Fold each of these.
Amino acid sequence: MFKNITDGRMCQCGNARESHLSVALGDYFSTAMVNHWDSRQHSSLHPTDAFGEMQFTGASKRQSYFMRLANDTAPSIVYNLLTRHWGLPSPNLVVSVVGGEGMEKVKTWVREVLRQGLVKASQSTGAWILTTGLQEGVGRCVGEAVRDHATAAASSSTNKVLALGVTPWGVVHDRKQLVNPKGSSPAKYKAQSTFKDSCSLDNNYQAFLLVDDGSVGRRGVETGFRAKLEEYISHQRTGICGSGTIDIPVLCMLISGQTNMLERVELSLKTSMPWLILAGSGGVADLLSEVLERVSPAPPSPSPPAEGEGGATPSVDMRERVAEIVRSHFPGHGDLDKLVEQVLSIYQNRELITVFHGEQEGTDDFDTVLLKALVRASKQRILSDATPNMEELKLAVAWNRVDIAKSELFNGSIRWKHSDLEDSMTDALVNNKPEFVRLFTENGLCILDYLNYGKLEFLYSTTPEGTLAYHLLQRMLQRRLQERPFTASSANLLDDTPDSATKMMSGNGPNSISLFEVSGVLELLIGDVCKPFYYSALGLDPNLSKRNALKKASKVLRGGQLYRADRCLYPWASLFIWAVLQNYSDMAVFCWEMAGETVLSALSGCKLLREMSKLESESETKLSMKVLAQRFENMAHDVFGSCYQSSESHSFTLLIRKSPVWGATTCLQMGMAADARLFFSQDGVQSLLSQIWWGEMRRSTEVWRLVLTFFCPFLCYTSLISYREDEEQEEEDIPRDDYRTYGDTVFSYSDIKHLAPLSCIRIHSKPPKRPFIVKRWRQFWYAPVTSFVGNVIMYFLFLLLFAYVLLVDFKGPPPAGPAVSEYVLYFWVFTIVCEEIRETFLVGSLILRQRLRLYRQDMWNKCDLTAITLFIAGVICRMFSSWFDAGRALLCVDYMVFTLNLIHIFAIHRQLGPKIIIVGKMIKDIFFFLFFLGVWLMAYGVANQALIYSYDPRPDRIFRRVFYGPYLHIYGLSPEEEMDVGQEGAMLCTTNTTLIEGGAEPCRNQYGNWLVVILLVIYLLVTNILLINLLIAMFSYTFNKVQEHSDVYWKFQRYKLIVEYHSRPSLAPPFIILSHLNLFIKRYIRRVPSVKVHDFVRELKGKEANRLMTWESIQKENFLSAQSKVQRGTDSARIKRISVKVDTVVKQMGTSREYEHRLRALENQMEYCSSAMSWIVDTLVQSSMVKPPRPPPTHRGTTAY
């Protein structure tokens, strides 16, 4: 207990005597009663009893965090609480507003500085604003400004201003509402009017740190804690998880303030904390601004500095001038000498202070003022090998202010080196700032020198926690670590705690994220379309199995990891993949613009995003992925359209070129994997498919000519079938002097224009000339359309033979059967099975696991497998007399399955194809309809059966009456007596349970007949009117929806069918066995490579590949230029340009007004000087002390003419 000089009932801590415990009130050793209370000596620590979330009653539903803590709490614990436990985003700037706490009325222009200047600038940088968080003075103005900006800002804005209150616990009004030892979630807090010794919290703050030193009603107890927190934050890194290149800039802003603020400013300046003083706001702010502006530095006095002080001792003259200014601002202060010493100490660190005249300068460029203040302060503490420009650049990157960087740093006056931009480039990439990445790329940064595999792994290690990419990478990393020999370190890393996950994601050792994990994630998302990524960098064979690759990769990563210093082969493509996995839309689009193979890159991004959207659980993130995927598909469609308009042959080569960047895949393969229907609907893609479909024949050839030639093959030598003219051209030898250099590629425009067309680039060497007979024969029979026509004709004959066997010639089991026709049918199906095996296991270069996976993904392959399985089961059963009928039934069902395959065959038809797609969509609707129908049918059937029949245990009759009978009711096919018991005719029935169990027909119950009729009416009303019309509405919606894009759907399905028949032999089953024998001899005995494979895949190397990539880049640039021109012509872009011009005019008018004020002030000074000179002249003339040698000059005014 402590004395209070004025009132014996109150303690010096501010509490009443009665509120203390008895042990504090006693004086057992005559030492408890003292004259001065000290928090450190006379208070004790206890676990906090006020923490959690609070909700302000009568205000918005948004909740704020709060925590009561001691004034000596470590700032590291508090910062961890803010960023990790409360989930507040790490700041790019911290502005600590001090002073003005007790101001009852804040000046209007100060309010505007806080609203239009501070909060707006903080919003553009993603800042924290620290105040006392009370509903008084400047704290209330800041809260209102943050509320207004949060209301006006978009909900998706990433940079949001966070207002944090560092509040003295003893000043909070009605703080008992927050006390709950178990934590509040949330605590109800009612804000009230300001009182004398307390004030309510402001509801516009996101979090409150309630600092308690044991006192009540004392302001300023949080000052020391707040200063330590600011200093700790200033040593933390910006960016996600502290991945930035600079420390978090912290700026203290002084508004007004009492004399106790001088000590606060002095202590902060000693830790090199920059200050921004708002001149004109009153109090200490005006005092310091006047001292800094009016007092000029004087030469130091010869007396040595006092111990512990740095710098020279101020002169007596300076001290007198400062004392005069202090006396003018605080005339009644008792300890004037102390104030003078504090002001002089602050003056010695004037380089860290910036004075802002808000009333005169305005608030438009307040963000630039903040930047200049921080840069000015940073010049005093940066290393000797650093430059102020580098510090200013890092601040601009941290704030994402590319406009400041362009106007101040990249205006041509500074020559930037590659090494100067590396750290800032990494910061811009990690924190998703594509505008800075573009700026650095355009101003000296070489991406080839910048990005190596080690830096790429670092980018993946900074993946934010909680994202899909983070979880996928962590899963792959854990899978690799589980393959390693079990050690103590690996056991710790396999822990599932968040800290262990963070350790695994960061670092450069074998336990951190590597390119092997990235390759695993890409393989999971893209599938078997591409070869594994980054295997060449790790020294792995792409054909290795997963287990062997995992073992070898673990061995490589446990070694020296020398690959990390190697340059990334395709830097922009690697950054594009990284940005897509992070779901950074703008960054991904920019990297796509810079990467090569534009069309394929866009399709690959579309594939990645669509697969990621299937795995993403957050609905908002899933939607953003789908939108970005559709954007990439649109860009692939538009860019290829521009390529097709430029050159048809070049665009065809672009579609079938095997890409070294994207794992030896092609645009067509990636587009199919990405389900890019819009891309396949492009005219250029369809033109290539049509050209491949018809082979060397003209596309205008009628189908009846093909059918006739199929039955009479020698007609292919006549004019009945027309062929395209040969387009083979020999490459002209171009002299070396005609080449021009474009970057690292050597090409000439004549080379680009004379690239070989598709018809003559299917093979790498010139094909040998064949006789006319052989040539025409190959041109007709090797065309996919001929194979299709032959398969259709032979399939119809197969179905006719199958039907004939089932209906006419299906003999009994051996030895009576099978008949000859049935043996022919068996052989026919055998050839079909051989073709299925060839297509699945012998076509392409995939491994067995990948082949089986692709086979399962196709619905028609499943249909073929079902038909073949049923046929084999039926043939086996029909060979035994006991299973003969079952075998016949299986073959009948199998005939239906074989017949349904006709739908797949006719998907190539332009009119039938879209309708088949619509039917497929409607089948999905039927399943939903059958669910509702089944529920209602079962409900009515069970009730109807129970009402009509009291006892009938036979399952067959129960099934017919519960399900089959009500189903027939829908179509009105049931007899009337079955629906109405009262209409029962002459029917033999019994009520004997024994006879009923023996199979006799039970009699019907007449009691519930009235209810049966009512239920029947309701059942028919729901099924025939409600559900049937619901099905019609669903069909209508599906039809209208698909019909709008039916052409797109059909063109997409057409590609699959063309690829299938392109790979098939010329002959159809059963004659296809001859083609199989021919292929076996050519491929495995004579080792003759396939020629048709080059229709869909071609590998370009060297000069030819460079020319094609350069031509594609030119078309991409043309497309982007046209797109930019269209965007500049939109109304929003025009309005934006007009707004910029208006702002420029307003600034110029403000400057002109400033010049006008200066001219007026100069005129006033001139008038004063003129009047003074006139008075001096008059005085001298009238005085007799001095005799002038000549008369005074006369005033020369304007002469009138």
Amino acid sequence: MKGGKIREKFRLTNLYTFSCLRPNADRADEQQPIPGLSFSRVVYCNQPKMHKKKPFKYRSNYISTTRYNMLTFLPKAFFEQFRRVANIYFLVATVCSLFSFSPFTPVSMIAPLAFVLGISMAKEALEDWRRFIQDMKVNTRKAIVHKGGGVFGNKQWWKIQVGDIIKVKKDRFFPADLLLLSSSYEDGLCYVETMNLDGETNLKVKRALEPTLSMENDESFKDFTGMIKCEDPNPSLYTFIGNFECDRQVYALDPSQILLRDSKLRNTAYIYGVVIFTGHDSKVMQNSTKSPSKRSGIERKMDRIIYVLLSVLLGISVISSVGFYVQTKSYMPSWWYLRPENPSFCYNPEQAPGSALCHFITALMLYGYLIPISLYVSIEMVKFLQAVFINQDRSMYDEVSGVPAEARTSNLNEELGQVDTILSDKTGTLTCNQMDFLKCSIAGTAYGMKASEVELAAMRKMAMEQELEIFDRKNGGIGSDSSGNDLDGPEIELETVVTSSGHRNKIKGFGFEDDRLMHGNWTKEPNANVIMLFFRTLALCHTAIPETNEATGEITYEAESPDEGAFLVAAREFGFVFFKRNQSSVVIRENHPSSPNPVEREYKILNLLDFTSKRKRMSVILRDPEGQIILLCKGADSIIFERLSKNGRMFEESTTRHLNEYGEAGLRTLVLAYKNLKEAEYTAWNNEFLKAKTAIGVDRELMLERVSDEMERDLILVGATAVEDKLQEGVPQCIDMLAQAGLKIWVLTGDKMETAINIGFACSLLRQGMKQICITALNSENNQDTKKPPLLFVPNQAVKENILMQITNASQMVKLEMDPHAAFALIIDGKGLTYALEDDVKHQFLSLAVDCASVICCRVSPKQKAMVTRLVRESTGKTTLAIGDGANDVGMIQEADIGVGISGVEGMQAVMASDFSIAQFRFLKRLLVVHGHWCYKRIAHMICYFFYKNIAFGLTFFYFEAMTGFSGQSIYDDWYMILFNVFVTSLPVISLGVFEQDVSSDVCLQFPALYQQGQNNLFFSWPRILGWMANGLFASIIVFSFNMLFFADVPFQSNGQTADMTAVGTTMFTCIVWVVNCQIALSMSHFTWIQNIFLVGSIGFWYLFLSIYGTLSPELSRNVFHVLGEVLGPAPSYWLLTVATTIASNIIYLAHKSIHRCFYPMDHHIIQEIKYLRKDVEDKIMWTRERSKARQETKIGITARVEAKIRMLKGRLHKKQATLASMCRQPVPTWSGSFEVGHDRAVSQMNQEKS
């Protein structure tokens, strides 16, 4: 099959798979035709010219994901910018500056607005340009298209039309939705990988229709024609309805013949197909929904603050206009120098109300610096730089996969520091989605010595009980045995074993350890023949494709599921190597100890009945080299056991016991069975099977299922397999730290309840002593009461009432619980969740869930994941984070306030829909506890400071107005005001938002409780915001009053010169620059050389500008001509006034900060002091004690389990001492001191192990 030119010659077989005829039963809800869908599409095969005119002219294959184009960029971008109320205000002010009543020149208003809008729109254009480049990379890919006369040539994807014949080679993507016509296999089969569509890594089998199978080369399409009538474009990936007309025959089409755009051809040299849907009509593009627009809580609150400031602006403008009205009406006629005999509209004593209205507009412009115009653009710049630091964090770089963390959007950085609830997928998120063959049961004998991760969790429980026995026997001190060893050690040490055990395997997919079966020793076992049949079943009963590396000779497998791949690896390690498959046979290489050379055995494939979730089994019918026909079957225990023959149940009892043990160990199990067939029996059955297969009508699939079910009866039990879906590295430690940080964790999984519970124990979401509340529907799989009626016969209302009763009873139990240390875990299945999410039940369900320490939702669909996320987000009003790795997690990720995608093995759908992406779940703790904490405090501090400095600056206009009779005169030069937000105060605040750290990253991880400052919104609460505003008010009063008192009728130079308005304004602006820059320096906790340069540089830039601007010609510098060099600079009072004003303006803040730190310190204040005094290095005991004090009481995680263990030990010991005291009639001694010593020692060791 090199280059796709050599056609594989295989005879037509009876190979049959259910997946070829319909999609998985998991998607049963998507199998029905879409309501309201029309079927008007007509495709003329190999006649694309027919589709260049209506009504058959369809959309081109060009795709675009950009938000703008050349025509729409400016209108849309301006619309986005002026959705912000502050920008609307400044636009109105800019327009007003063109009129005579404006206090400013138009340049001073237009320049800042143009700068801010330009930066924001440039950022939008850059992001959209990147999207355009990605689109063009896809649109300009090359495809092989029939150009006529049996000649194929290259054509770019965007030029492909409906009706084109496409040739796709191995490992290439399909450029559009195609109808499969033929393939390199004579049967017309091909294998397709749909990872980009649904996240599934298993291969799908597609089959061409019989009339087109013979089109084996390019020339076959020279005169080919046909017509397709099918459904219109729709987003359903798993349904397709249509007819294909060829040679006056009509053939029904179904999803098994459709090749979807962006899926990949695998294990097939080439295929031919005809284009049905192109571009945005293709199913993958129909499914591409725009990501919802998400805004952080701080940004939404910032809008409300802007409204408050606008209200203040309107208020003082009204006051100013009223004052102007009084001045104009009462006093202006006597002010002869204003020439009242020649009034203008804005200064007319006879029309004072009109003049007051005119002044109102002037005041709105004059006091506009209360509104920080550069706030939005500064925040965007800061968030962008924060995202760069997240992307470059080496501690979140996964060396195994080479994948770093990525902030896919920078709008939600600060939201990372306020998360309250995490909703997580399980498979691929908490677990690796890597199946390891761990144990097996063969002929009633259990094999496999290696412990699963859940069994390691059970060992911790056993260690706890053993320690209790040690205390009972030895009556020793708490926390240590007679040898002085810490008894908390074994449990803590096992924590590292939980996640490191997976690295002991050198063979991916194979974790089996038992010498009885390895190295050919299985031949010495009593049931060697059954064991050999077990190994052969693993090697033969599958649909996988072997791939041999020509360089190394290593064989790998492309399997439909990770479980199947693990079975083949296990069979290979046991000596039964599957290495060749074609459409008629499979070949395995058996290594028998009795034979020096491997033996190749070829089995003819007669029939293959594929695995689906509805059937819960798969079977293959083979003819072995001896000519015997045998059926091999694997499936769920509940399905296989009921199909066993009477003489095939020899090992049923022991196998059932082993299956229960494997299930308790958190392992996924399957049962293997077989059946020998006689020739006549098989022939009769195969005739019925072929009749059902060739039947036409709606009953075809039912007939096939019935015939298949007849064959899969009277089986003989062989054994069972147990594979483990391993936890990702560091998951228990990550969950413990997130719990310490005050986050609640919910797990939403499609697995069954037993598996989810076992994984919950392994990752410390569940623990010993936690009370489990299981809510299930009446016929849940976990309901063992066979007397209860099946759900099919129970009215929906009765089921709903039952669910509601379970929720009510559980809520009552939680409320009546008196033990403060009691912990509850809520576990609910998908059927129960269906009713729990209904409008009249969901709030009671949520109330119960919030009261529980952990929540696990099992058997949930992707839609239910999204609905649960929406319920938590909307009803609690707190920040939610959803994390997953598969396409089934996209809805949940988009519904949450923050979506995190994991770059796992289930494709990139979750990552593409996410706001942040990481490679492993364990990196979530650093993303939240470190970067989330930093970003929240930086943004909150930055915004508060912005409002402070603008109030401090903007209110000086109002004070000067009041002093000058509300004349509308500005005390500052226009260029001063341009400089204020753009140059002299912008860089320090940006450096604050990027580099500020209250504590280092290591301290954040050592004191995860610091994260709760963000959850409680301590640094962006209304009291803190109003406090910063009051600080700005105080600074404005000090600056203005000091300058006015100093310059009022007092000469400030030795020659007796008094100050004019330019000198006063320049001095006042100098004071403002010093005050606000010193204020930001006082509020910082962490300084870098960049911040120092920005702070000193901002002040220095003001003097540099003043020097250069003052030396320009008077036509340009106007009144500022040589104001620094000749007027202010030589006067010592100018410099003394600047220093005095700066100290007086910041003294209140400094006093407040000192009192707060000394008498009401926050957690990070204490840590800062300890770090500054190096007590963490010089006094380890004190540092450990502080860490212990800072630990929060949690109900989940490693820490919670240790605390529960200590409480059990203490209670047991006190009980024993009470018993001894009563026997000896002596008072009970006090053990609190020794207990505290043991407690501190346990905590200290726990912290050392976790760090």
Amino acid sequence: MTVEQNVLQQHSQKHQQTLLNQLREVTGTTDVQLLQQALQVSNGDLVEAVAFLTEKNAKVPQQDEATYYQTAQITNDRYISVGSQADTNVIDLTGDDKDDLQRAIALSLEESNRAFRETGITDEEQAISRVLEASIAENKASLKRTHTEVWSDSPNPHERKRMENCPVGLKNVGNTCWFSAVIQSLFNLLEFQRLVLHYSPPARMQDLPRNQKEHRNLPFMQELRHLFSLLVGSKRKYVDPSGAVEILKDAFKSSESQQQDVSEFTHKLLDWLEDAFQIKAEEDREGEKPKNPMVELFYGRFLAVGVLEGKKFENTEMFGQYPLQVNGFKDLHECLEAAMIEGEIESLHSAENSAKSGQEHWFTELPPVLTFELSRFEFNQALGRPEKIHNKLEFPSMLYMDRYMDRNREITRIKREEIRRLKEHLTVLQQRLERYLSYGSGPKRFPLADVLQYAMEFASSKPVCTSPVEDIDTTAPPGGTIAQLPPPASAGEQPDACVSAEGSGSGLQASQQQQQRVSIHKPFTQSRVPPDLPMHPAPRHITEEELRVLESCLHRWRSEVENDTRDLQASISRIHRTIELMYSDKSMMQVPYRLHAVLVHEGQANAGHYWAYIYDRHHQRWMKYNDIAVTKSSWEELVRDSFGGYRNASAYCLMYIDDKKPFLIQEFDKETGQMLSGLDKLPPDLKVFVEADNKLFEREMEEWDALQARKLQQEKLALAAAAAAAAAASVAVQPMSTEPCSPDNTAPSAAPQHDPEYMEQQSPSGDSKHLQEDTERAISKAAAEHDEKSPEALLNTAMKVEYTRLLRLAQEDTPPERDYRLQHVIVFFIHNEAPKKIVERTLLMQFADRNLGFDERCKSIMKVARAKLELIKPDEVNMEEYEMWHQDYRIFRETSVFLLIGLELFMKKSFVEALMYLIYAYQYNKELLAKGPYRGHDEELIAHYRRECLLKLNEYAAALFETGEEAKVNTGLSIMNDLVVPCLPLLLVDEMEEKDMVAVEDMRNRWCSYLGQEMEPNLQEKLTDFLPKLLDCSTEIKSFHEPPKLPSYSTLELFERFGRVMTSLTMGRTPADGR
């Protein structure tokens, strides 16, 4: 085949694909075979093809058809430019006239074709243009965002500095997470990366651009080279891709915007790159057939073998991204098997000339990079909108493609036939097993083995009846009237006390007497068990011989049923195993493809967030590329987010690479064969570009450091001035010190050590008074036991008394409303097994209070305690450890205050004010619990109210949005943007907390539910702008509110208020109740 023929064939294939896309969009038909049949019947005439499909679907009621087109018309109204004039060729589609519908479709197709002829740009490319323009506009608008929105850069460049050996992220410049996911997946294909970095534009630049495509492709390639070079060698944590997005936006002109389909973008991106490399290949061919590296890397070929109306055909086709249907399949191999066989193909394997139609696909040549496009979106014609398929679909990390290769056609057909036979047998066995496991003829069915067991238990039961005398005594009316007794049993009746009404010889008389008896019962005795019925089901009459025979039969039958069930289950398991191992022999494992990247979408069909999992072959681990955040991941996380069926996240694109071609992912120089890394991978022009950008970033960090140094110096000067002023004032008013000097009459060499604020005793009120009273009681009790002891002995005894009291409090099993850790720091220390020296010093500090008391005994003990403190050597008590323990207690008290205020506000339904208190209570508490289980409060309780608060705010904001009023809508979105959205990463970061994950999904689903509803264009625009922020799955906290300022509580007040709040929670619903 000549070069011209090859180009013409590729152009013909692209043109046919364009026609299929247009026909699918106009008619809503997704059956590829039916679409191709329509094009063949109409000889490529779109109008006739639409007419053919319309007649095919004529069975659909006209009312539904009109409703569908009305819906589509309303949906598209929001894309009409403001101020544009109405088209004079408007056709009314609301009537029943089918001619109007046909003319409308024809007019639409004519307009689409005319636009293509005039501009050379397809509707698909214009759709991409619309989302790119929206992205750029969003990027510019982001400059006006508040600090709580997710994509604002940190002013501190050190927070934007790249960690050593960490991959570089891509900034989301406004609804461009799809761009980041695709570009990162391609960039990490090192062969593709080399091709882009070493791409050089054609030498005939003066002759270019020759057409619009070249005008678009060459600047884009240059911008892509710059972007890839920054991803290789930048010192920034993430880089801005606006340059590439700007080039793409400028290539198309449109004023409309919509959510971009990433599969279409990937397809078009590869087309653009193919065109760019084709220009270079044609220049370098020198009379030889040009080789396009994009085609060699991403495109393969398959052989289509089939029968059309009884006539056999066979042709070869080229493919890039291979589309696979998800709905109705459980794993990737099932999807591939279905995609390789279309229609009924029995006639392919028989000598008969059947009229059946169908075809098989067999790969003749697989590309080094094999990409599967998973069709997770389908158009719901009844609702008139696209919907996402959330079904679970499993895929392997290593995929063997042998069974789909043309060279293995015959053996694969044999194995498929064997699998088909096994599956038929499997269906029969499963049906038989189901009869055992769901036995019965009514609506409720039970396992047959259990039914037999229940029958055996019933037969073995003995009847136990109530005494009629007891029944009468206990049911007698208060007035003393005794209910009328039934007549004594006649001779023909059984003497058994448990005779039924049906077994009575005088049924009518017994019935009348029973009614008469019941009629005089009081209301509270009406529901009692009648005295002639047993207390539990049991046989009335059964002999020992009958019971023995019945039990023997039931035992034997149950054993037989259990054996049959086990045999069926074992047979089913063996067949499943046989099917799984059908292709496990070595001859069918010669074409291995390793999973390289998984592109994931979370959300609904009209909006969502995209990210990618990419395998790092060098470090043998998975990495998660989520815009600016690049983090280590695992196969387990990938499975959870990519298989589907869990939340709204699932894979939409799988990228496999040939495991026998290591050059795809190895870093080396093709010319020298040396391994390369970092800037050494770049050609000279790009190395200069990256070094210049790194110098700019280094200068930015230096300027920031200089600015911070100046601020720090100014703060130090201000503090020094304030300290000097305070010292001058203190000298002016301070009285003569009456404290005794140290034994050597010199000042202590150690720096003064300040007591913790909860141990400071500066006044006889608040904490001081409470702690002072406890200390004085301990001294009084010690003095009562030993009247004549020295102050030092009294101090030791008093400390033992106080410690015994605190130990008893610590050992009590108390509910949350009586948390004695809030009463005293030593209780906290005992709970957490603090070192003995830390506890002793803390207790000694308590008795060293200057304001301990005014009697001589207390003063003498205080002086002894202070002297002991001064004699403690640095090596006896680690002061850093001492401060650390007291710092933890300070944080515990702050956490308690955060939780106290947050719960009080929550119970007052002040959710906006309560949120930050609960958020910081959880964060501080989590840090404490990381050091020990008794250092904080109940994590589940705080998590519950934090979660509930966010859900309440979400409901409130959604209710405001539903009003449609501008002011209320803005208030609702402000609550979401400023409060709820920044907090979502806190719920997502701990992925083991299932309730938090479910809550986030509930919030997202509430807002995604608006996508299918009709609303004003301005509300639609606000919703489209807001949803990507809500659906962002990043767990990185970009910016956040400062913690609220806490009021000062005394120990007693904090203990009592905390107890009241916890009591209120105990009386209400507990967190275990769930949401």
